[in-house]
Amino acid sequence: EHRSMNGVLMNQLREERGLNYGDYSYIERFIGGVRSNTRFPDLNTPLRQQYFSIWLRPVPPEKAHFAIRAALYELNKYVKDGLTQEQFEKTRMFLISYSKLWAQTLDRRLGYQMDSEFYGTEYYLDRIEKELNKSSVGEVIRVIKQYISPRNLVIAVVADHADDLMSAMQSNVPSPINYAAPVSESIRQADKTIETLPLAINKSQSKVVPVGSLFE
């Protein structure tokens, strides 16, 4: 979640490798961090399908290729291995308490009530605690494997010299990384796999869009 330091991406890409400022994954359509200083999900934005996204921002251009590979490396591990019982329990207890903060104001409480009525469910924040209390790590792993696919993604990159980056990604050239500060041996061993991780990019579906054309 936005600005949450207990996430795997935040720990592996920012804390351990110092790649950038923020690395997050969301299971809701989160855009609040772009237009305001909030870290909470937006309300009253009805969706027709489930949503999953990963954000990496910002990344130095020379490390962009590696950063994308590192995120996909962690996503592959997540889908393949799931969570441990310890990770599940820690996250469950965090969410039961933290979700109360999502409704600090009357506006947000009303917003959740409107969303709950729109989707035909009981009050969202009450449901979170109820569902989390009866969930199991096995159930969570099953849902992860069923609904999240590391090979079924759309990747958008904002970059200078985007043609060069796209060519490198499509060609799967190695993307070794150099660190300004020492990192652990376990990180260096993982990096050897990450820097040559194959990216199965659909070339016919890939394009570079000049930024000016987005505002015509």
Description:
With 216 residues, this protein is mainly α. It is built from nine helices and two strands. The chain has helices at 8-15, 32-35, 64-81, 85-98, 106-119, 124-134, 137-147, 162-171, 185-194; strands at residues 22-26, 53-57. It has a two-stranded antiparallel sheet with strand order 1-2. Helix 1 runs antiparallel to helix 3 (64-81). It is globular and about 50 Å long. 13% of the residues are buried.
Secondary structure layout plus pairing:
Elements: H1 8-15, E1 22-26, H2 32-35, E2 53-57, H3 64-81, H4 85-98, H5 106-119, H6 124-134, H7 137-147, H8 162-171, H9 185-194
Antiparallel strand pairs: 1-2
Helix pairs in contact: 1-3
Helix content: 40-55%
Number of helices: 9
Separation of termini? 33 Å
Which consecutive residue ranges, at least 5 long each, have pLDDT under 50? Answer: none
Kindly state the number of beta strands: 2
Order of helices and strands: HEHEHHHHHHH
> How would a textbook summarize the main sheet?
2 strands, antiparallel
Shape summary: globular
Average the pLDDT over all residues and give the rounded result.
91
Beta strand %? under 5%
Strand arrangement, major sheet: 1-2
Radius of gyration: 19 Å
- Output the structural class: mainly alpha
Question: Any key phrases for this structure?
Answer:
globular; mainly alpha; 216 residues; 2 strands
